[in-house]
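S.,

As promised, the NAP run. Input:
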Amino acid sequence: MELDGKFAVVTGGGAGIGLATTAALRVAGANVLIVGRSPERLDAARGTDTGITSFVADLAEERDRDRLVAHLAENRPLDVVVNNAGTMTDVDLHDRDVMWKAKHELALDLWAPMHLTIALLPILLSRREAAVVNVSTGLIYAPFGRTPGYAAAKAGVHAFTQALRHQTRHDALQVLEVLPPTVDTELASGYGGSKIKPEAVGTAGAKALTKGTAELRLGRVKFLYPMSRLAPNAIFSMMNKVAGKVGVTK
Ligand SMILES: NC(=O)c1ccc[n+]([C@@H]2O[C@H](COP(=O)([O-])OP(=O)(O)OC[C@H]3O[C@@H](n4cnc5c(N)ncnc54)[C@H](OP(=O)(O)O)[C@@H]3O)[C@@H](O)[C@H]2O)c1
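Predicted complex:
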């Protein structure tokens, strides 16, 4: 895909991987609409770059997602959707408030990407070339037991992305899944292991779009993938031993 002159929406584009992806898309010549809850964060991310616009929305909320879709339908034609916004929450399944936490995480991490993709698909399919980028995680291969909502949501994103790629295989739509390892962002701030920079994810993601990559496994995820196929139980235990020793962002 040629990114120069394209128009992309990046959810969670005001921080972390979303901000780095926005920067990489800008370098490649695309204009970007960034979406998030905090107007201040979006303003700071936009800075003085007239190629970046912003839209305030809580994507866990259905009516905010509908507002975003309506805004995009009225705006200049959309070429790229980057479903990136997400949270990773510790959820103890013994707790009484578990239902709300899990529901919220599924709404943001799974249903929002599905809702936006389904609603925006007619616009994307009307373009000469278009793309959907879904940011999942290397943890789809060995989920952390302490974050069951996140684990379920990201497994769902992976499966949905495969189904979307299959159903649109005869269309001019590229479907890219980005599977990062631990990245140095707010989401992983409580996590003590080694981390890659968000810029590395953003740059690799933009490059993968131009190359037509289907699944972009980064850093340790390149090894986690085959290892989890060869020895799934051992890898699950190892990952959860590591997760048990370090904090994960609440
Ligand atoms: N960091 C990692 O180690 C890692 C590893 C693998 C995959 N990932 C995935 O990468 C994606 C981005 O994560 P990150 O590490 O960049 O996180 P981050 O630095 O915490 O940024 C999250 C972004 O999502 C936005 N956001 C959060 N809740 C939202 C909501 N309800 N509605 C709209 N926007 C919302 C935030 O903006 P506001 O707060 O202003 O809303 C922020 O821009 C996530 O899907 C995550 O699962 C991260």
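The chain has one domain: 7-245. The radius of gyration is 17 Å.

- D.
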